[in-house]
Protein backbone atom coordinates (compact mmCIF):
# COMPACT_ATOMS: atom_id res chain seq x y z
CA UNK A 1 0.00 0.00 0.00
CA UNK A 2 1.13 3.54 -0.74
CA UNK A 3 1.47 5.76 2.32
CA UNK A 4 -0.59 8.95 2.50
CA UNK A 5 2.57 11.05 2.69
CA UNK A 6 4.54 11.50 -0.51
CA UNK A 7 8.33 11.29 -0.20
CA UNK A 8 10.41 14.44 -0.57
CA UNK A 9 11.88 13.03 -3.79
CA UNK A 10 8.48 13.52 -5.44
CA UNK A 11 8.50 17.17 -4.40
CA UNK A 12 12.04 17.63 -5.75
CA UNK A 13 10.89 16.19 -9.08
CA UNK A 14 7.90 18.58 -9.19
CA UNK A 15 10.06 21.58 -8.31
CA UNK A 16 12.46 20.55 -11.09
CA UNK A 17 9.55 20.43 -13.54
CA UNK A 18 8.46 23.88 -12.34
CA UNK A 19 11.99 25.16 -12.99
CA UNK A 20 11.83 23.73 -16.49
CA UNK A 21 8.52 25.52 -17.07
CA UNK A 22 10.13 28.81 -16.03
CA UNK A 23 13.03 28.09 -18.40
CA UNK A 24 10.45 27.41 -21.12
CA UNK A 25 8.94 30.85 -20.49
CA UNK A 26 12.37 32.43 -20.92
CA UNK A 27 13.01 30.49 -24.13
CA UNK A 28 9.55 31.47 -25.34
CA UNK A 29 10.33 35.13 -24.64
CA UNK A 30 13.52 34.89 -26.70
CA UNK A 31 11.60 33.15 -29.47
CA UNK A 32 9.02 35.91 -29.46
CA UNK A 33 11.50 38.79 -29.28
CA UNK A 34 13.65 37.40 -32.09
CA UNK A 35 10.50 36.79 -34.16
CA UNK A 36 11.41 33.14 -34.52
CA UNK A 37 8.08 31.55 -33.67
CA UNK A 38 6.78 31.19 -37.22
CA UNK A 39 9.97 29.69 -38.67
CA UNK A 40 8.84 26.07 -38.18
CA UNK A 41 5.81 25.60 -40.39
CA UNK A 42 5.35 21.90 -39.69
CA UNK A 43 4.03 20.44 -36.45
CA UNK A 44 5.25 16.88 -35.95
CA UNK A 45 4.99 16.28 -32.20
CA UNK A 46 6.17 12.67 -32.29
CA UNK A 47 8.53 12.43 -35.26
CA UNK A 48 9.77 16.01 -35.52
CA UNK A 49 12.34 15.89 -32.75
CA UNK A 50 15.31 15.94 -35.11
CA UNK A 51 16.43 19.15 -36.86
CA UNK A 52 17.06 19.30 -40.60
CA UNK A 53 20.12 17.31 -41.64
CA UNK A 54 21.78 18.25 -44.90
CA UNK A 55 21.38 21.11 -47.32
CA UNK A 56 18.38 19.59 -49.13
CA UNK A 57 16.34 19.32 -45.93
CA UNK A 58 17.25 22.86 -44.90
CA UNK A 59 16.13 24.13 -48.29
CA UNK A 60 12.86 22.21 -47.93
CA UNK A 61 11.95 23.74 -44.55
CA UNK A 62 13.09 27.16 -45.76
CA UNK A 63 10.83 26.91 -48.79
CA UNK A 64 7.91 26.16 -46.48
CA UNK A 65 8.70 29.29 -44.49
CA UNK A 66 8.93 31.33 -47.72
CA UNK A 67 5.26 30.54 -48.33
CA UNK A 68 4.18 32.17 -45.05
CA UNK A 69 2.80 35.67 -44.80
CA UNK A 70 5.59 36.63 -42.37
CA UNK A 71 8.23 35.96 -45.02
CA UNK A 72 6.26 37.57 -47.82
CA UNK A 73 5.24 40.67 -45.85
CA UNK A 74 8.25 41.24 -43.60
CA UNK A 75 11.23 39.05 -44.47
CA UNK A 76 11.33 38.92 -48.26
CA UNK A 77 14.89 38.31 -49.37
CA UNK A 78 15.97 36.60 -46.18
CA UNK A 79 18.94 34.30 -46.77
CA UNK A 80 19.12 30.69 -45.62
CA UNK A 81 21.74 31.57 -42.98
CA UNK A 82 19.39 34.14 -41.42
CA UNK A 83 16.56 31.65 -41.50
CA UNK A 84 18.64 29.08 -39.65
CA UNK A 85 19.11 31.53 -36.75
CA UNK A 86 15.39 32.01 -36.16
CA UNK A 87 14.69 28.34 -36.88
CA UNK A 88 17.04 27.19 -34.09
CA UNK A 89 15.31 29.30 -31.45
CA UNK A 90 11.90 27.88 -32.33
CA UNK A 91 13.40 24.39 -32.54
CA UNK A 92 14.89 24.75 -29.05
CA UNK A 93 11.54 26.03 -27.81
CA UNK A 94 9.66 23.00 -29.11
CA UNK A 95 12.39 20.55 -28.08
CA UNK A 96 12.35 21.92 -24.52
CA UNK A 97 8.59 21.37 -24.43
CA UNK A 98 9.08 17.73 -25.38
CA UNK A 99 11.83 17.41 -22.77
CA UNK A 100 9.48 18.70 -20.07
CA UNK A 101 7.02 15.99 -21.08
CA UNK A 102 9.70 13.31 -20.78
CA UNK A 103 11.02 14.62 -17.45
CA UNK A 104 7.47 14.59 -16.11
CA UNK A 105 6.23 11.31 -17.56
CA UNK A 106 9.18 8.99 -16.91
CA UNK A 107 9.61 9.72 -13.17
CA UNK A 108 5.84 9.63 -12.78
CA UNK A 109 5.74 6.06 -14.05
CA UNK A 110 8.76 5.12 -11.94
CA UNK A 111 7.22 6.60 -8.78
CA UNK A 112 3.97 4.74 -9.48
CA UNK A 113 5.79 1.45 -9.92
CA UNK A 114 7.73 2.05 -6.70
CA UNK A 115 4.45 2.87 -4.92
CA UNK A 116 5.68 6.27 -3.85
CA UNK A 117 2.64 8.19 -5.05
CA UNK A 118 -0.21 8.35 -2.53
CA UNK A 119 -3.79 8.07 -3.79
CA UNK A 120 -4.59 11.74 -3.17
CA UNK A 121 -1.66 12.83 -5.35
CA UNK A 122 -2.31 10.64 -8.41
CA UNK A 123 -5.24 12.67 -9.83
CA UNK A 124 -3.18 15.87 -9.55
CA UNK A 125 -0.26 14.33 -11.44
CA UNK A 126 -2.54 12.96 -14.16
CA UNK A 127 -4.15 16.40 -14.49
CA UNK A 128 -0.73 18.04 -14.79
CA UNK A 129 0.28 15.60 -17.52
CA UNK A 130 -2.91 16.31 -19.47
CA UNK A 131 -2.47 20.06 -19.06
CA UNK A 132 1.05 19.75 -20.45
CA UNK A 133 -0.29 17.96 -23.52
CA UNK A 134 -3.02 20.58 -23.91
CA UNK A 135 -0.39 23.30 -23.72
CA UNK A 136 1.40 21.76 -26.68
CA UNK A 137 -1.83 21.84 -28.71
CA UNK A 138 -2.46 25.46 -27.67
CA UNK A 139 1.08 26.34 -28.74
CA UNK A 140 0.48 25.00 -32.25
CA UNK A 141 -2.95 26.68 -32.37
CA UNK A 142 -1.18 29.94 -31.52
CA UNK A 143 1.50 29.46 -34.19
CA UNK A 144 -1.10 28.66 -36.86
CA UNK A 145 -2.68 32.09 -36.35
CA UNK A 146 0.47 33.69 -37.74
CA UNK A 147 0.46 31.84 -41.04
CA UNK A 148 -2.45 33.73 -42.63
CA UNK A 149 -2.28 37.38 -43.73
CA UNK A 150 -0.18 38.62 -40.79
CA UNK A 151 3.41 38.70 -39.57
CA UNK A 152 2.76 37.81 -35.92
CA UNK A 153 0.67 35.33 -34.01
CA UNK A 154 -2.66 36.39 -32.55
CA UNK A 155 -2.21 38.31 -29.30
CA UNK A 156 -5.28 36.50 -27.96
CA UNK A 157 -3.81 33.06 -28.56
CA UNK A 158 -0.40 34.14 -27.29
CA UNK A 159 -1.97 35.35 -24.04
CA UNK A 160 -3.91 32.09 -23.64
CA UNK A 161 -0.67 30.15 -24.22
CA UNK A 162 1.15 32.30 -21.65
CA UNK A 163 -1.71 32.01 -19.17
CA UNK A 164 -1.72 28.22 -19.45
CA UNK A 165 2.03 28.14 -18.80
CA UNK A 166 1.56 30.14 -15.61
CA UNK A 167 -1.38 27.95 -14.57
CA UNK A 168 0.75 24.82 -14.96
CA UNK A 169 3.56 26.50 -12.99
CA UNK A 170 1.15 27.38 -10.19
CA UNK A 171 -0.26 23.85 -10.06
CA UNK A 172 3.22 22.29 -9.91
CA UNK A 173 4.36 24.62 -7.14
CA UNK A 174 1.19 24.23 -5.06
CA UNK A 175 1.36 20.44 -5.13
CA UNK A 176 5.11 20.40 -4.40
CA UNK A 177 4.71 22.85 -1.52
CA UNK A 178 2.01 20.63 -0.09
CA UNK A 179 4.53 17.80 0.14
CA UNK A 180 7.56 19.64 1.59
CA UNK A 181 5.78 22.25 3.68
CA UNK A 182 2.50 21.03 5.16
CA UNK A 183 0.46 23.95 6.45
CA UNK A 184 -0.86 24.19 9.98
CA UNK A 185 -3.18 26.90 11.27
CA UNK A 186 -4.32 29.64 8.92
CA UNK A 187 -2.91 33.12 9.44
CA UNK A 188 -5.11 36.14 10.32
CA UNK A 189 -7.71 36.99 7.72
CA UNK A 190 -6.32 40.40 6.76
CA UNK A 191 -2.91 39.26 5.47
CA UNK A 192 -4.46 36.12 3.95
CA UNK A 193 -7.00 38.10 1.94
CA UNK A 194 -4.36 40.61 0.89
CA UNK A 195 -2.12 37.77 -0.29
CA UNK A 196 -4.88 36.38 -2.50
CA UNK A 197 -5.65 39.86 -3.85
CA UNK A 198 -1.99 40.47 -4.63
CA UNK A 199 -1.69 37.09 -6.33
CA UNK A 200 -4.75 37.78 -8.45
CA UNK A 201 -3.45 41.20 -9.48
CA UNK A 202 -0.01 39.82 -10.33
CA UNK A 203 -1.72 37.16 -12.46
CA UNK A 204 -3.74 39.80 -14.33
CA UNK A 205 -0.56 41.83 -14.86
CA UNK A 206 1.07 38.78 -16.43
CA UNK A 207 -1.86 38.30 -18.81
CA UNK A 208 -1.81 42.00 -19.69
CA UNK A 209 1.89 41.57 -20.43
CA UNK A 210 0.95 38.83 -22.88
CA UNK A 211 -1.21 41.30 -24.81
CA UNK A 212 1.63 43.87 -24.73
CA UNK A 213 4.01 41.26 -26.18
CA UNK A 214 1.50 40.07 -28.76
CA UNK A 215 0.94 43.60 -30.08
CA UNK A 216 4.55 44.78 -29.65
CA UNK A 217 3.01 47.55 -27.55
CA UNK A 218 6.18 47.89 -25.48
CA UNK A 219 7.86 49.58 -28.44
CA UNK A 220 5.50 52.56 -28.27
CA UNK A 221 5.07 55.19 -25.54
CA UNK A 222 8.66 54.65 -24.34
CA UNK A 223 8.52 57.30 -21.63
CA UNK A 224 7.93 57.02 -17.90
CA UNK A 225 6.11 57.81 -15.65
CA UNK A 226 3.96 59.61 -18.23
CA UNK A 227 2.95 58.16 -21.56
CA UNK A 228 4.32 60.74 -24.02
CA UNK A 229 3.42 63.54 -21.61
CA UNK A 230 0.04 62.27 -20.45
CA UNK A 231 -1.10 60.17 -17.51
CA UNK A 232 -3.80 58.66 -19.73
CA UNK A 233 -2.63 58.72 -23.35
CA UNK A 234 -4.81 60.12 -26.09
CA UNK A 235 -6.75 57.59 -28.11
CA UNK A 236 -7.31 54.97 -25.41
CA UNK A 237 -10.95 54.68 -26.51
CA UNK A 238 -10.50 55.11 -30.26
CA UNK A 239 -11.73 51.63 -31.22
CA UNK A 240 -15.35 50.61 -31.39
CA UNK A 241 -16.91 48.81 -29.59
CA UNK A 242 -15.16 50.34 -26.58
CA UNK A 243 -14.14 47.04 -24.98
CA UNK A 244 -11.99 46.19 -27.99
CA UNK A 245 -9.49 48.85 -26.89
CA UNK A 246 -8.34 46.69 -23.99
CA UNK A 247 -7.22 43.98 -26.39
CA UNK A 248 -6.25 45.67 -29.68
CA UNK A 249 -5.40 49.33 -28.97
CA UNK A 250 -1.65 49.74 -28.34
CA UNK A 251 -2.09 52.72 -26.03
CA UNK A 252 -4.79 51.06 -23.95
CA UNK A 253 -3.01 47.72 -23.70
CA UNK A 254 0.19 49.33 -22.44
CA UNK A 255 -1.73 51.65 -20.10
CA UNK A 256 -3.59 48.68 -18.60
CA UNK A 257 -0.32 46.78 -18.05
CA UNK A 258 1.20 49.80 -16.32
CA UNK A 259 -1.79 50.33 -14.05
CA UNK A 260 -1.94 46.67 -13.08
CA UNK A 261 1.81 46.70 -12.35
CA UNK A 262 1.37 49.73 -10.09
CA UNK A 263 -1.53 48.00 -8.33
CA UNK A 264 0.57 44.86 -7.87
CA UNK A 265 3.45 46.77 -6.27
CA UNK A 266 1.07 48.72 -4.01
CA UNK A 267 -0.75 45.60 -2.86
CA UNK A 268 2.49 43.72 -2.21
CA UNK A 269 3.79 46.66 -0.16
CA UNK A 270 0.54 46.69 1.83
CA UNK A 271 0.77 42.93 2.31
CA UNK A 272 4.39 43.21 3.49
CA UNK A 273 3.40 45.78 6.13
CA UNK A 274 0.42 43.68 7.23
CA UNK A 275 2.57 40.56 7.57
CA UNK A 276 5.14 42.41 9.66
CA UNK A 277 2.41 43.50 12.06
CA UNK A 278 0.54 40.20 12.29
CA UNK A 279 1.33 37.00 14.20
CA UNK A 280 2.19 34.83 11.19
CA UNK A 281 4.52 31.84 10.84
CA UNK A 282 8.19 32.52 10.10
CA UNK A 283 7.90 30.92 6.64
CA UNK A 284 5.10 33.31 5.72
CA UNK A 285 7.21 36.25 6.84
CA UNK A 286 10.12 35.05 4.71
CA UNK A 287 7.85 34.60 1.72
CA UNK A 288 6.44 38.12 2.07
CA UNK A 289 9.94 39.58 2.39
CA UNK A 290 11.10 37.82 -0.76
CA UNK A 291 7.94 38.86 -2.61
CA UNK A 292 8.38 42.53 -1.68
CA UNK A 293 12.02 42.55 -2.80
CA UNK A 294 11.14 40.87 -6.09
CA UNK A 295 8.30 43.34 -6.72
CA UNK A 296 10.75 46.25 -6.53
CA UNK A 297 13.23 44.51 -8.83
CA UNK A 298 10.52 43.59 -11.35
CA UNK A 299 9.23 47.17 -11.43
CA UNK A 300 12.76 48.45 -12.14
CA UNK A 301 13.19 45.86 -14.90
CA UNK A 302 9.86 46.83 -16.43
CA UNK A 303 10.64 50.54 -16.51
CA UNK A 304 14.15 49.96 -17.89
CA UNK A 305 12.80 47.63 -20.59
CA UNK A 306 10.28 50.27 -21.62
CA UNK A 307 12.67 53.24 -21.62
CA UNK A 308 15.28 51.35 -23.66
CA UNK A 309 12.64 50.18 -26.18
CA UNK A 310 12.62 46.49 -25.31
CA UNK A 311 16.24 45.34 -25.67
CA UNK A 312 16.45 41.56 -25.78
CA UNK A 313 18.43 40.94 -22.54
CA UNK A 314 16.26 43.22 -20.40
CA UNK A 315 13.03 41.96 -21.93
CA UNK A 316 14.03 38.36 -21.20
CA UNK A 317 14.96 39.28 -17.63
CA UNK A 318 11.57 40.98 -17.27
CA UNK A 319 9.85 37.77 -18.39
CA UNK A 320 11.90 35.71 -15.95
CA UNK A 321 11.11 38.27 -13.24
CA UNK A 322 7.41 37.88 -13.91
CA UNK A 323 7.67 34.12 -13.40
CA UNK A 324 9.61 34.59 -10.15
CA UNK A 325 7.24 37.28 -8.84
CA UNK A 326 4.26 35.06 -9.66
CA UNK A 327 5.87 32.09 -7.89
CA UNK A 328 6.74 34.10 -4.78
CA UNK A 329 3.21 35.50 -4.71
CA UNK A 330 1.82 31.97 -4.82
CA UNK A 331 4.21 30.86 -2.07
CA UNK A 332 3.06 33.73 0.13
CA UNK A 333 -0.58 32.77 -0.43
CA UNK A 334 0.24 29.17 0.41
CA UNK A 335 2.02 30.02 3.66
CA UNK A 336 -0.77 32.33 4.83
CA UNK A 337 -3.69 30.10 3.84
CA UNK A 338 -3.27 27.38 6.46
Structural account:
This protein has 338 residues and is an all-alpha fold. It folds into 2 domains: 1-182, no CATH class; 183-338, no CATH class. 70% of the residues lie in helices and 0% in strands. The protein has 11 helices and no strands. α9 runs antiparallel to α10 (282-307).
Q: From the helix content, strand content and strand pairing, which structural class follows?
A: mainly alpha
Distance between the termini: 28 Å
Helix content: over 70%
Uncertain ranges: none
Integer-rounded radius of gyration: 22 Å
Total domain units: 2
What is the overall shape? Answer: flat
Strand content: under 5%
- Put simply, the count of helices is 11
Strand count: 0
Roughly what is the average pLDDT, rounded to an integer? Answer: 92
H/E series: HHHHHHHHHHH
Largest sheet: none
Amino acid sequence: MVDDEAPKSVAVWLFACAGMVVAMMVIGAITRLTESGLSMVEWRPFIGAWPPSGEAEWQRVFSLYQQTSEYQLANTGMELAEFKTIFWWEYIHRLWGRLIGVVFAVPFVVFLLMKKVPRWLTPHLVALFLLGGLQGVIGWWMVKSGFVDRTDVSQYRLTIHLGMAFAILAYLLWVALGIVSPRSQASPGGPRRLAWLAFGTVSLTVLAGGLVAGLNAGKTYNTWPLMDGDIVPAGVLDLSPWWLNGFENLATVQFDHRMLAYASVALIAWLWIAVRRAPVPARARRAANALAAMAVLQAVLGVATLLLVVPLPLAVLHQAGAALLFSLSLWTVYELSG
